[in-house]
Amino acid sequence: MDIGIEFIALLLATGLVAGVINTLAGGGSNLTLPALMVMGLPADIANATNRIGVALQNLVAMRGFHQHDKLPTDDLVPVLIPTLFGGVLGAIAASYAPAYLLKPLLLGMMLSMTVIMLVRPGIISPPAGTVPFKMKERPSAWWWLAVAGFYGGFVQAGVGFILITALAGSLRYDLVRTNALKVVCTLAFTVLALGLFIARGQVLWVPGLILACGTMVGAQIAVKFAISAKPETLKWFLFVMTLCGSVAALYFE
């Protein structure tokens, strides 16, 4: 497809902002999906094409967190198993069903998280010095991660909030390590979903790779900010993004 300068600029700028938002919180796809659809892509093609930027952005973020020793690797495989299981099922569902089916879930989840952060902020942002649980110590985290994987495989937008709830709320990781684990989980089920979408011919590479250039730069900026920012700053950023995601969910198609 032919892409004009104005659409290239739109994809790069939107991708950069979404890369920052997705790495530090979630909901960046609420920006990138409409940007792709503005170009004339059908919802299912935009949903599939968007995964290129998501995958590459999380690859960059994972590398950055690992370099700064903020990526917990000792419990990574148990965290990934339910996430991938859900991701496969979600990708299969997305390939055959319209994304709007999960709009009520997206809105309800984000509004619930906003209320939780106002009433009991310690659930999402554990106190300093909190020792995280292992997956085997918190079986409930398995179901949270499976749900997050399914949702991420299905539509992607807002999946970061579900992962944050599972990793920080259930396993009690601090926000920096929560985000580090979140990007690995997101990368894992996004690669699986992307493979299915490619096999079904639903991915447009040119706009997807242009968008990815922006998301990768955004991810690099976000990792540097996460490492240097105060925990309170990260918590407020997450809160603001949750509010924005709630508003976006009202209009998400």
Protein described:
This protein has ten helices and no strands. The protein has one domain. The longest helix has 25 residues, at about 45-65. With about 250 residues, it is an all-alpha fold. The two termini are about 25 Å apart. Helix 1 runs parallel beside helix 9. The mean pLDDT is about 80.
- Could you tell me how far the N terminus lies from the C terminus, measured between alpha carbons in angstroms? 23 Å
SSE pattern: HHHHHHHHHH
The portion of residues forming beta strands comes to under 5%
Global structural class: mainly alpha
| Backbone CA Rg | 17 Å
Helix content: over 70%
Q: Structurally, how many domains make up the residues?
A: 1
- Describe the biggest sheet? none
Query: With helices defined by DSSP (H or I, 4 residues minimum), what is the helix count?
Result: 10
- The average pLDDT is 81
Number of beta-strand segments: 0
- Unreliable spans are none
The general outline is: globular
